Amino acid sequence: MASEKNKIIVAGYEFNNANDAALAREEVKKVEYIRTHLDTSKPDKVLKVLKKAIEERIFKTPIGMDFIREIQMFLINQCGYAEEEVPCIPVTPQYNRALRSEAGETSGKSSAEKKEKVPPLLISVILNILLVIAVAAMFIITLKSDNPNILNYETAINNKYAYWAEQLDEQEKNLREKEKEIKIREIELKEREAELETDN
Fold first, then answer.
1. CA distance readout (Å), 118 to 95, 107, 114, 182
2. What does the pLDDT look like over 127-171, one tens digit per residue?
3. Which among 85, 84, 104, 108 has a CA at the least distance from the CA of 93?
4. 69 close to 89: Cβ distance less than 8 angstroms
5. Residues 64 and 31: beta-carbon distance below 8 Å
6. Burial of 59 (0-12, 13-18, 19+ CB in 10 A)
7. Separation CA 102–CA 118 (nearest Å)
8. Rg (CA), the chain
9. Does residue 70 surpass a pLDDT of 70?
10. 8 A C-beta contact, residue 17 and residue 42
11. Which residues pair with 9 in a beta bridge?
12. Side-chain-side CA neighbours of residue 200 (13 Å)
């Protein structure tokens, strides 16, 4: 329960906080304005004012609700409207404290459950797993890549040198074979020359 210091009285109603009291004061002014400008001799205009006030929810505090009820009763009792013809006043607050506390608890639970559906820790774990997979994929790509990089530069350089060594060995073999062919031809040429000299 609010202390006596916090209670603010506006038009016979006691409010527990300054915001509600300020809203009530505004509604007092609205009620006074509508009273001075409302032509009660034209019930159809009074009905329009009532409908507009209800549809646009101009009044929220008990002060405004009392005024809407007053207009409603005026239309029914003095203007001959049936109760079905006059719009009803919507009531939003729950007056039973037990119901209000239950509603607060259930709404609190539902919002807490919504927050707990995806806890931050789970999101963090999922993101970390995805990052580990991404890093592992990058390592695999860099290891299997032909281009030298920080992970496989030694292997890449060794492979290059081995390839060059193989090429050099092949070229050396080719050169030796050609040298042998040249030597064989030289020997053949010398033998022919010797034959020719003996023939002459």
1. 34, 18, 8, 83
2. 999 999 999 998 888 777 767 666 667 777 788 888 899 999 999
3. 104
4. yes
5. yes
6. buried
7. 25
8. 50
9. yes
10. no
11. 14
12. 5
Q: In degrees, to the nearest 5, what angle opens at C-alpha 188 toward C-alphas 183 and 194?
A: 125
What is the b/e burial string over 15-42, where b = at least 16 CB atoms within 10 angstroms of the residue's CB?
beeeebbebbbbbbebbeebeeeeeeee
Q: Token digits for 72?
A: 């409603």
pLDDT (0 to 100) of residue 148: 67
Greater pLDDT, 188 or 197: 188
Alpha-carbon span 147 to 151, nearest angstrom: 11
In order, the DSSP letters of the chain are ---GGG-EEETTEEESSHHHHHHHHHHHHHHHHHHHH--TT-HHHHHHHHHHHHHTT---SHHHHHHHHHHHHHHHHTS---TTTSPPPP--S---HHHHHHHHHHHHHHHHHHHHHS-HHHHHHHHHHHHHHHHHHHHHHHHH-SS--TTTHHHHHHHHHHHHHHHHHHHHHHHHHHHHHHHHHHHHHHHHHHHHHHH-
Residue 132 one-letter amino acid: V
